[in-house]
Write a structure and sequence with these properties.
By secondary structure, the chain is α/β, with parallel strands linked by helices. The protein binds S-adenosylmethionine.
Length: 237
């Protein structure tokens, strides 16, 4: 059985699924080209720990970098997109891994924050991601700006939690309703919530059992909220 076949049909598509495990191993069990968009926020390789001692697994280790993106490339459909956050301090390593996997960088997104995550030589006030192509994807019908406002998520569910409001416009621009979005480093499931809010299907993979559980519960709550809503939710904000 492949992981593709574990994603079961619901009323009008697929149920979101979050798998607990190493994304390299999990993706190796997935079929080629079953995914319509990879949207992910991998470890930044900065050995992050917050004031309360929370850590991000694999943040001090880069052995996963190349094999993970080789698998992400394989499971992504031809002529489709990947969007990956990355740390500017290790931009060279991320770009090398993406290019060696076969991706082409076709855009760069800056997420502007109203606060500084750190102040040193500069007030560090943005996050960043690359838009990457497998093959030659069609131009989006409504291109979005490459500067996106990013409000503070509060980091209650995960130490590096991304706000859903910064993710759903990306999903809307680069997929169609019913498409399957994969986040191989899904943390608390923010990408999954954004996928559900925009009527897309979702597969998340998370190594840390604690955040796997958080993501599963979060998506279950989102599904029940949408099921009890009398109106289909399209644009969430
Ligand atoms: C930067 S965090 C993602 C946070 C997420 N965007 C959110 O909003 O909650 C990266 C996540 O990748 C997970 N991770 C690290 N290595 C992994 C691997 N090999 N397979 C799957 N998940 C992994 C970490 O446990 C962490 O939760």
């Amino acid at each position: 059985m492949t992981f593709d076949s574990t994603i079961r049909c619901s009323q009008n598509g697929l149920l979101p699924s979050v798998v607990c495990g190493d994304c390299i191993q999990v993706m190796r069990q997935m079929n080629d080209q079953g995914v319509d968009l990879v949207l992910t926020d991998p470890p930044y390789l900065v050995n992050y720990h917050d004031r309360s001692g929370r850590v991000v697994l694999n943040d001090a280790d880069q052995t996963w970098l190349k094999p993970a993106f080789v698998e992400a490339y394989r499971v992504l459909r031809n002529d489709h997109f990947m969007i990956s956050f990355y740390s500017w301090t290790h931009a060279d390593k991320f770009l090398t891994a993406w290019r060696e996997a076969g991706f082409r960088a076709i855009g760069h997104l800056v997420f502007r924050k109203q606060y500084c995550s750190k102040s040193r030589f500069l007030g560090y006030q943005h996050e960043q991601a690359y838009l990457l192509a497998k093959g030659r994807p069609k131009l989006p019908a409504h291109p979005i700006p490459d500067v996106v406002e990013m409000r503070y998520s509060g980091n209650q569910l995960h130490p590096t939690q991304k706000p859903v409001s910064a993710l759903w416009p990306l999903i809307q621009a680069f997929t169609r309703e019913g498409d399957l979005v994969l986040d191989p480093f899904c943390g608390s499931g923010s990408t999954g919530v954004a996928a559900l809010l925009t009527g897309r299907n979702f597969l998340g993979i998370e190594l840390d059992p604690k955040y796997h559980c958080v993501a599963q519960n979060r998506l279950a709550r989102r599904i029940s909220a949408q099921q009890s809503s009398p109106f289909p939710i399209r644009s969430p904000f």
